[in-house]
Amino acid sequence: TVKNNHNPEWNFKAAFDVDQHTTEDITITVFDDDFGKDDSLGSTVLTIKSVQEQQLLNQWIPLEKCKSGEVLLSAEFISNTSIEQQKLLEVGITVGKEEVNSTEFATKELITKDLVNEENQKTSEKGAKGLINILKTDNNISTEPDKTEPEPSKYVEEIHLEPQQKTEILTIKEKTPELVFEKTTESLPLPQKTLEAGQIVITVHKARDIEKKGMLGKADPYVKMTLGNQKAKSATVNNDYNPEWNFKAAFDVDQHTTEDITITVFDDDFGKDDSLGSTVLSINTVQEHQQLLNQWIPLKQCKSGEVLLSA
């Protein structure tokens, strides 16, 4: 329950199981949480068949059995086949991670053993060289023993350095497989879907709560749509912050089209017309869903305002 609010936000999600025996549709009702019996504030019915045919995305639906009110809905149909495929995919990812972890552990163990053997060999070689040097020194002993005799502290210091160097080398080598593993797990960007050649027909029905600019008078808004070199401009509605245009325009698209359609509301004024906000309509989205019907889209680069679109 959202308390003391005539424009509540729920972001409430629910899932319903349907099959070939389902005959009813989904009823959505808004209630007033009160003592005793909760009063109905309006309701609407969502047809399951329409959702199965086409995804519903951020669409304002009027409430019935009330004086006013709308609810913003999104809905999609997920088949049992898709659900099973998703479960199998998740299981496959889990098994893959376990195999990678096992491989990584085995690789580390082999590297560590190789390094230990390598260090032992180096230590033996160093020991042999040291012994040869000592013997050479002993053969060259002169009558002045204080100058030619090796300093005991020097050899003790070299012996103590060996374990430190060995530990440092092992630490560096163990980090190397982890860095390589992290780089190989980076996701690659997905290729953008190629557009289908045809026409995108857009209708800007109206706007509401557009930004109020200036100290005197009201805005004289018009809407302008742009796709590359293709442009379309509506008529101006004078002195209205909630204008209605019902303006329709068609744009040609093909596989070479890289831009999206920009929709901007302007204030028709003397000199330069001020922008009252804009939005961008993705052509890929329209082609994917086939149809956009009576959807309120917020305007950007402004303080307030929305436009009602169909495409």
In short:
The chain is built from 5 helices and 12 strands. The protein is α+β, with helices and mostly antiparallel strands.
List the helices and strands and how they pair.
Elements: E1 26-32, E2 39-46, H1 48-53, E3 56-62, E4 70-75, H2 80-139, H3 145-148, H4 152-184, E5 198-208, E6 221-227, E7 230-233, E8 244-253, E9 261-267, E10 274-281, H5 283-289, E11 295-298, E12 306-310
Antiparallel strand pairs: 1-2, 3-4, 5-8, 5-12, 6-7, 6-9, 9-10, 11-12
Helix pairs in contact: 2-4
Characterise the protein shown here.
Helix content is 35%, strand content 27%. A hairpin with a 7-residue loop joins β3 and β4. α2 runs antiparallel to α4. It has a four-stranded antiparallel beta sheet. A four-stranded antiparallel beta sheet has the order 7-6-9-10. The protein is an alpha+beta fold.
The chain-level structural class is alpha+beta
Largest sheet: 4 strands, antiparallel
Number of helices: 5
Instruction: Flag low-confidence runs.
Output: 141-145, 150-186
What best-fitting shape do the alpha-carbon axes yield? Answer: extended
Would you list the SSEs in sequence order as H and E? EEHEEHHHEEEEEEHEE
Spatial strand arrangement across the major sheet: 8-5-12-11
Helical content, roughly?
Answer: 25-40%
Q: How many extended strands?
A: 12
Task: Give the termini distance in whole angstroms.
Answer: 35 Å
Give the C-alpha Rg: 37 Å
Determine the strand fraction and express it as a percent band.
25-35%
Rounded mean pLDDT score = 76
